[in-house]
Amino acid sequence: MKNYLSLVKFSHTIFALPFALLGFFLATLESGGGLSFRLFILVVLCMVFARSAAMAFNRYLDRDIDEQNPRTATREIPAGVISPKAALSFVFINSLLFIATTWFINLLCFLLSPVALLVILGYSYTKRFTFLCHFVLGLGLSLAPIGAYLSVMGQFDLIPVLYSGAVLLWVSGFDIIYALQDDDFDRSLSLNSVPVKMGRPGALRLSNFLHAGSAFFILAAAWQLQSAYPEFQWLHWLATAIFLGLLFYQHTLVRPDDLSKVNIAFFTTNGIASLLFGVLVIMDIYL
Fold it and tell me: Is the pLDDT of residue 32 over 90?
């Protein structure tokens, strides 16, 4: 179990899960029907199964690339801890469990589940033919708040779409920062990424622009929440301020000639931003 949790980087669930739960609790508020513990568990399971399938498939597909990269050679498949066949079976099982779980939510989620799988599994191929791969990853994670909202309401709405837009640009931006550390290696294998396409200074400028766009969506969602629910207090505004502050802060950690703090910018800063944002907005919903 420990090896498989490491394979899928389970700790990185912290990026999308708070936004998924935010979509769920927002829909619960709008439905007026009270919290369904059964539905809550199903939404969490969907997140776990979908993300596990996506990460394991990425590791399976990239196993030969990872073996050549000193930074990733110790990952479970190239290191021989988990066999490629076992990893692929893990992908298949989690994909089936994801689709099966959506069946118990509602028909719309069930019908859309193959589309979601196509996006999150398809990301693993994209670095082989387009530098826009970061945006496909962002798109995959951006499905979380919309999917969770659909699980309760069975229809689309503006606020979860705004949160999804924020996640799309936020994840794309910080994945570009993360890709900086493999810039030279990706060039040697003719792999595609924004740093390869635009160089390190250009990649950081694009990441800045994307995070400015994410900030716009977060602010728009906060304004829409306040307009729809005047009784909302100050917690979601505090959440917004913290999220925007951490977006700005991570860009002070990384420079084209100094990538020593990439992991702090990637995991620590963004993990804290997502967790605090989700917790504070959900608190405001219930207060």
Answer: no
pLDDT value for 233: 84
Residue 143 is given by DSSP the state H
Residues 6+ apart with CB under 8 A from 60: 77, 84, 87, 88, 91
Question: C-alpha angle 23/274/3, rounded to 5°?
Answer: 100
Phi/psi at 258 (nearest 5 deg)?
Answer: -145, 100
Burial (CB count <10 Å: 0-12, 13-18, 19+), residue 216: middle
Spatial separation of the C-alpha atoms in residues 208 and 210, rounded to whole Å: 6
Residue 256's Cα: distance from chain center in Å?
A: 25
Q: Where are the beta strands (DSSP E) in the chain?
A: none
Q: Which residue from 146, 69, 153 is spatially nearest to 113, judged by alpha carbons?
A: 146
pLDDT tens-digit map of 44-59: 999 999 999 999 999 9
Q: Please, what's the largest Cα pairwise distance for the chain? A: 56
The full 3-state SS of 183-220, as one line of letters, equals HHHHHHCCCCCHHHHHHHHHHHHHHHHHHHHHHHHHHH
Task: Say how far apart CA 81 and CA 74 lie, in whole Å.
Answer: 9
Q: Are 77 and 63 in contact (CB under 8 A)?
A: yes
Given this model, what pLDDT does residue 209 score? 97
Per the structure block, which two tokens stand in for 96? 């089936």
Task: With cut-offs at 50, 70 and 90, classify the pLDDT of residue 267.
Answer: confident
**Measured distance CA(72)–CA(184) in Å, rounded:** 14
Query: Is-contact 177 254, C-beta < 8 A?
Result: yes
* CA 251 remoteness from chain centre: 19
Whole-structure pTM over 0.85, yes or no?
yes
